[in-house]
What we know:
The protein has 10 helices and no strands. The chain is mainly alpha-helical. Helix 2 packs antiparallel against helix 3 and helix 7 packs parallel to helix 10. The protein is globular and about 60 Å long.
Amino acid sequence: MNNWLKAESIKIKNNILLWISLGLTFLFMIYIVFDPFPYVELKISSYLSSVFLLSLTVFGTISFIILGAFLSYEEYSWNTLHLLIGSYSRIKSFYYKSFYILLVSFFITVLTTLLSLVLHIYIGAPGQIFSLQVFTQIFVVSLICFFWGELAFVLSLITKNVMYSVLIVFFISFFEPVIYSHVNEGLLKYFIVFNQKGVLALTFSNLIEGSYIIVPDLNYPSLTWSIVFQLGLIGAILFIGYQYIKKCSITS
C-alpha cells in the first residue's frame, strides 16, 4: 500500500499546473482573511472554515481536474500503463488510481480546514472556531472534489488526451451555470453543478447573506434527489472507466 501511494505521488509531484492551481486557491483563501472585508462583524460559527471549504469547491476544482487527468495521461506519455497493469491487474490499477484521487480529495479538504483554524486563531476572528457542521462540510466537499477528479481521470483514460480532458471538464464545472437562464426550469435537476449547489446550499447554510462567499439562492431539487443523482453519476463514471480499462488494448 505504501509503495503504491508513493508511486502515484511521484507521478504528480512535479506537475507544475497542479501546484500553481492549488497555490492560487490557497492564496485566495488567505486574501479573504486580510482583505478589508468586514468579516470581523460576522460572528458566525466556524466562519473561516466554511468559507475556505466552499472556496475549494469553486476555485480548487481545477486542481482535482488536473490531478485526475494527469494520473492516467502520464501512464500513456511515459508508456508505463502496461507495466502498471502487469503489476496490479487492470481492475486493481483502475480502482487504485480512483482511490488515490479520493484520498487526495479528503487530504486537501482536511488541510484546508486546518489552515482556516490556524488563521482563525492567528487573527482572533470572532465567532465559534469550530462546529460539528464542519464535519458534514468536509465530507460533502471531499466527495465533490473527488467527482471532478474522477471524471477527468476517466475521460483522460479514454481519450488519451490530457488537454481535451481538462478543458472539457473545466468547461462543465465552471460554465454550466451560464446556461441556467436559457433552460427549462424542470430540466435543471438533471444538471451536475446545479445539483451540487443544491447540496452545498444546505451544507453551508451557516454562511448567510453578508458572508464573503455564499451559495446562490435558487430553486434547487430536494436533498434526496441531489444526493442520489450525484452518487448515480459517480457510479456511472466508475462503471464506464472499469469497462474501458477491462477491454482496451494495452501495448508496451
